[in-house]
Design brief:
The chain has about 200 residues and is an alpha+beta fold. Helices cover about 40% and strands about 20% of the residues. It has a 5-stranded antiparallel beta sheet with strand order 3-2-1-4-5. A hairpin with a 4-residue loop joins strand 2 and strand 3. Helix 1 runs antiparallel to helix 3. The longest helix has about 60 residues.
Length: about 200
Protein backbone atom coordinates (compact mmCIF):
# COMPACT_ATOMS: atom_id res chain seq x y z
CA UNK A 1 0.00 0.00 0.00
CA UNK A 2 2.78 2.42 0.96
CA UNK A 3 4.68 1.56 -2.21
CA UNK A 4 1.59 2.36 -4.31
CA UNK A 5 1.19 5.78 -2.65
CA UNK A 6 4.87 6.64 -3.14
CA UNK A 7 4.66 5.53 -6.77
CA UNK A 8 1.66 7.74 -7.39
CA UNK A 9 3.41 10.74 -5.82
CA UNK A 10 6.45 10.18 -8.03
CA UNK A 11 4.21 9.91 -11.11
CA UNK A 12 2.33 13.14 -10.28
CA UNK A 13 5.61 15.02 -9.67
CA UNK A 14 6.98 13.78 -12.95
CA UNK A 15 3.80 14.80 -14.74
CA UNK A 16 3.93 18.28 -13.18
CA UNK A 17 7.55 18.77 -14.27
CA UNK A 18 6.71 17.62 -17.79
CA UNK A 19 3.73 19.98 -18.00
CA UNK A 20 5.83 22.85 -16.70
CA UNK A 21 8.53 22.12 -19.29
CA UNK A 22 5.95 22.12 -22.07
CA UNK A 23 3.97 25.17 -20.95
CA UNK A 24 6.84 27.51 -19.99
CA UNK A 25 7.93 28.28 -23.60
CA UNK A 26 4.30 28.82 -24.59
CA UNK A 27 3.73 31.18 -21.65
CA UNK A 28 6.90 33.11 -22.55
CA UNK A 29 5.82 33.34 -26.18
CA UNK A 30 2.41 34.69 -25.17
CA UNK A 31 3.95 37.24 -22.80
CA UNK A 32 6.48 38.50 -25.35
CA UNK A 33 3.85 38.50 -28.11
CA UNK A 34 1.50 40.57 -25.96
CA UNK A 35 4.30 43.06 -25.33
CA UNK A 36 5.08 43.29 -29.07
CA UNK A 37 1.41 43.84 -29.93
CA UNK A 38 0.99 46.57 -27.31
CA UNK A 39 4.11 48.40 -28.56
CA UNK A 40 2.89 48.04 -32.17
CA UNK A 41 -0.49 49.54 -31.27
CA UNK A 42 1.22 52.46 -29.53
CA UNK A 43 3.44 53.12 -32.56
CA UNK A 44 0.48 52.85 -34.96
CA UNK A 45 -1.44 55.49 -33.00
CA UNK A 46 1.57 57.81 -33.22
CA UNK A 47 2.00 57.19 -36.97
CA UNK A 48 -1.70 57.88 -37.65
CA UNK A 49 -1.45 61.04 -35.56
CA UNK A 50 1.62 62.20 -37.51
CA UNK A 51 -0.28 61.87 -40.82
CA UNK A 52 -3.23 63.81 -39.40
CA UNK A 53 -1.03 66.59 -38.06
CA UNK A 54 0.76 66.83 -41.39
CA UNK A 55 -2.42 67.10 -43.45
CA UNK A 56 -3.93 69.61 -41.03
CA UNK A 57 -0.94 71.92 -41.53
CA UNK A 58 -0.99 71.31 -45.30
CA UNK A 59 -4.65 72.32 -45.55
CA UNK A 60 -4.05 75.47 -43.52
CA UNK A 61 -1.07 76.57 -45.60
CA UNK A 62 -3.00 76.27 -48.85
CA UNK A 63 -1.40 77.42 -52.08
CA UNK A 64 -0.58 80.40 -54.26
CA UNK A 65 -3.50 79.96 -56.63
CA UNK A 66 -3.83 81.40 -60.12
CA UNK A 67 -2.83 84.90 -61.15
CA UNK A 68 -4.55 85.36 -64.50
CA UNK A 69 -7.64 87.64 -64.31
CA UNK A 70 -9.56 85.47 -66.79
CA UNK A 71 -9.79 82.57 -64.35
CA UNK A 72 -9.63 84.51 -61.10
CA UNK A 73 -13.40 84.49 -60.55
CA UNK A 74 -13.50 80.70 -60.29
CA UNK A 75 -10.18 80.24 -58.58
CA UNK A 76 -8.37 81.42 -55.51
CA UNK A 77 -5.59 83.98 -55.82
CA UNK A 78 -3.88 82.09 -53.03
CA UNK A 79 -3.41 81.97 -49.28
CA UNK A 80 0.36 82.20 -49.74
CA UNK A 81 2.50 84.94 -51.25
CA UNK A 82 3.33 84.31 -54.90
CA UNK A 83 7.05 84.22 -54.00
CA UNK A 84 6.52 81.18 -51.74
CA UNK A 85 8.31 78.06 -52.96
CA UNK A 86 6.96 74.52 -53.04
CA UNK A 87 10.03 73.30 -51.18
CA UNK A 88 9.55 75.70 -48.26
CA UNK A 89 5.92 74.63 -47.76
CA UNK A 90 6.49 70.90 -48.15
CA UNK A 91 9.49 71.07 -45.79
CA UNK A 92 7.22 72.47 -43.07
CA UNK A 93 4.73 69.64 -43.62
CA UNK A 94 7.41 66.92 -43.52
CA UNK A 95 8.94 68.44 -40.36
CA UNK A 96 5.51 68.47 -38.74
CA UNK A 97 5.01 64.79 -39.54
CA UNK A 98 8.46 63.73 -38.33
CA UNK A 99 8.27 65.79 -35.14
CA UNK A 100 5.05 64.02 -34.12
CA UNK A 101 6.62 60.67 -35.09
CA UNK A 102 9.72 61.36 -32.97
CA UNK A 103 8.12 59.45 -30.08
CA UNK A 104 7.85 56.17 -32.01
CA UNK A 105 9.17 53.29 -29.90
CA UNK A 106 10.26 50.54 -32.29
CA UNK A 107 9.31 52.17 -35.59
CA UNK A 108 10.60 54.80 -37.98
CA UNK A 109 9.22 56.97 -40.79
CA UNK A 110 10.58 56.02 -44.23
CA UNK A 111 8.72 58.39 -46.54
CA UNK A 112 6.21 61.25 -46.47
CA UNK A 113 4.06 61.87 -49.56
CA UNK A 114 2.00 65.02 -50.12
CA UNK A 115 -0.58 64.41 -52.82
CA UNK A 116 -3.85 65.40 -54.46
CA UNK A 117 -6.25 62.46 -54.08
CA UNK A 118 -8.13 61.49 -57.23
CA UNK A 119 -10.29 58.75 -55.70
CA UNK A 120 -13.40 59.32 -53.62
CA UNK A 121 -11.92 57.39 -50.70
CA UNK A 122 -8.86 59.67 -50.52
CA UNK A 123 -6.29 56.92 -50.93
CA UNK A 124 -3.16 57.55 -52.94
CA UNK A 125 -3.33 56.00 -56.41
CA UNK A 126 0.13 55.47 -57.91
CA UNK A 127 0.41 56.80 -61.45
CA UNK A 128 -2.80 58.83 -61.15
CA UNK A 129 -2.44 61.27 -58.28
CA UNK A 130 -0.16 64.29 -58.34
CA UNK A 131 2.37 63.71 -55.58
CA UNK A 132 5.52 65.09 -53.98
CA UNK A 133 7.59 62.42 -52.23
CA UNK A 134 10.10 63.07 -49.45
CA UNK A 135 12.39 61.03 -47.23
CA UNK A 136 11.98 61.45 -43.49
CA UNK A 137 14.88 63.95 -43.45
CA UNK A 138 13.04 66.18 -45.96
CA UNK A 139 15.07 65.21 -49.02
CA UNK A 140 12.90 65.11 -52.14
CA UNK A 141 12.56 61.77 -53.89
CA UNK A 142 12.87 62.23 -57.65
CA UNK A 143 10.68 60.12 -59.92
CA UNK A 144 8.55 60.05 -63.05
CA UNK A 145 5.28 61.01 -61.32
CA UNK A 146 3.44 64.31 -61.74
CA UNK A 147 4.26 66.85 -59.02
CA UNK A 148 1.63 68.47 -56.80
CA UNK A 149 2.26 72.24 -57.18
CA UNK A 150 1.09 75.02 -54.87
CA UNK A 151 -1.14 76.36 -57.64
CA UNK A 152 -3.44 73.35 -57.17
CA UNK A 153 -3.74 73.71 -53.39
CA UNK A 154 -6.14 76.63 -53.21
CA UNK A 155 -9.88 76.67 -52.70
CA UNK A 156 -11.99 79.70 -53.58
CA UNK A 157 -15.58 80.41 -52.51
CA UNK A 158 -16.78 79.95 -56.11
CA UNK A 159 -14.25 77.34 -57.20
CA UNK A 160 -14.22 73.58 -57.04
CA UNK A 161 -13.25 71.97 -53.76
CA UNK A 162 -9.56 71.19 -53.39
CA UNK A 163 -8.28 68.31 -51.28
CA UNK A 164 -4.83 67.46 -50.01
CA UNK A 165 -3.53 64.21 -48.59
CA UNK A 166 -0.50 63.21 -46.55
CA UNK A 167 0.68 59.62 -46.78
CA UNK A 168 3.20 58.25 -44.27
CA UNK A 169 5.20 55.10 -45.03
CA UNK A 170 6.75 53.61 -41.90
CA UNK A 171 8.10 50.34 -40.58
CA UNK A 172 7.84 48.55 -37.24
CA UNK A 173 10.45 46.13 -35.92
CA UNK A 174 9.10 43.86 -33.19
CA UNK A 175 11.39 44.09 -30.14
CA UNK A 176 10.94 40.49 -28.94
CA UNK A 177 9.96 38.59 -32.07
CA UNK A 178 10.98 34.95 -32.02
CA UNK A 179 13.21 33.64 -33.56
CA UNK A 180 14.26 36.79 -35.46
CA UNK A 181 13.31 40.45 -35.50
CA UNK A 182 10.18 40.74 -37.63
CA UNK A 183 9.77 43.99 -39.59
CA UNK A 184 6.39 45.17 -40.87
CA UNK A 185 5.97 47.93 -43.48
CA UNK A 186 2.82 50.01 -43.02
CA UNK A 187 1.12 52.95 -44.77
CA UNK A 188 -1.06 55.57 -43.08
CA UNK A 189 -2.79 58.47 -44.80
CA UNK A 190 -5.08 61.37 -44.00
CA UNK A 191 -7.00 63.74 -46.29
CA UNK A 192 -8.57 67.15 -45.65
CA UNK A 193 -10.22 69.89 -47.66
CA UNK A 194 -8.04 72.89 -48.29
CA UNK A 195 -8.92 75.86 -46.11
CA UNK A 196 -11.17 78.33 -47.90
CA UNK A 197 -9.38 81.38 -49.24
CA UNK A 198 -11.11 84.50 -47.91
CA UNK A 199 -8.55 87.33 -48.03
CA UNK A 200 -6.89 86.98 -51.40
CA UNK A 201 -9.69 85.85 -53.71
CA UNK A 202 -11.78 87.63 -56.35
Amino acid sequence: MLRAIVGRLRDSRGQAITELALLTPLAMLLALGSYDVSIFISDKVIAVSSARHGVRLASELGGIGVTSPASAKANCRGTLASSTTLSSIDTQIVKNVTSVAATLNYAAIDEVDIYRPSGTDGQYIAGTDHVNKYKADGTAIVGSWTAYPLSERCQAPQGSEAEIGVRVLWHFTAPDAIPTKATINIVEYAVEKENLCTTNCT
